[in-house]
Specification:
- By secondary structure, the chain is of the alpha+beta class.
- The chain has one domain: Dynein motor C sequence, barrel region (Hypothetical upf0131 protein ytfp, Roll), CATH 3.10.490.
- The protein contains 4 helices and 10 strands; from the N terminus they run ααβαββββββββαβ.
- Strand 8 and strand 9 form a beta hairpin.
Length: 199
């Protein structure tokens, strides 16, 4: 406790984290609060904090499975599409989306996010000074057929649990770029990714 370090015996059976003991313990409490609210009502939250899930990839797969069953589509021919919404925080979400589900709790590394005007989508911009890990708005995750996946003006962005990257990889998201003329290599060279914690 003096070193503010998570004990090795806890780390061994816990999720990936670079937090000190104090912030790690608060994070665990927040995860428990979401889980308790979810299991008490037995209704999926309007927006799920994906960062609080022990296995977030399972939730992404579940979104694909629900869409697959609903539209009688083969699951192995589907992908998840991440559309960043105008909702700055999950408190602004008042209803479920028409398709897919809302998620929040993600941070950008290597870039910032420009909110679009009403009716327009936002897009990636260069990282702002003193904003190491800006919070990204609520994301609408939808499942689409692989052939229908939009790739124009999209940056294929890796999502990690922590800034350690490597073994903490979870899934690939797609983020809107300013225009189709914008080169995605700019974001690759900048090491742009989404993180489930701001460390």
């Amino acid at each position: 406790m003096i070193l503010n370090k998570v004990p090795a015996t806890w780390e061994k059976v816990a999720y990936f984290s670079k937090k000190g003991l104090q912030t790690w313990f608060q994070d665990m409490i927040d995860r428990n609060i979401q889980l308790q609210a979810w299991t008490t009502s037995l209704e999926t939250p309007l927006s799920v904090c994906i960062s609080y899930l022990f296995n977030p990839m399972s939730y992404m797969t579940a979104i694909m499975q629900v869409t697959s069953r609903k539209h009688m589509l083969p699951l192995n021919d589907m992908k998840t599409c991440t559309n960043v919404t105008q909702f700055k925080t999950h408190d602004e979400v008042k209803a479920y989306p028409e398709n897919g589900m809302y998620i929040h709790g993600l941070f950008l590394e290597g870039a910032s996010w420009e909110l679009g005007n009403p009716g327009q989508s936002g897009y990636l911009i260069e990282q702002k000074l003193k904003e190491l890990h800006p919070r990204i708005p609520v994301i609408n995750v939808v499942a689409v057929k692989t052939a229908d996946m939009v790739t124009v003006a999209q940056y294929t962005c890796p999502t990690y649990t922590t800034s350690m990257r490597g073994p903490t990889f979870v899934f690939q998201s797609n983020l809107q770029m300013e225009s189709e003329d914008f080169d995605a290599n700019k974001w690759v060279l900048a090491g742009v990714c989404l993180l489930m914690t701001d460390d």
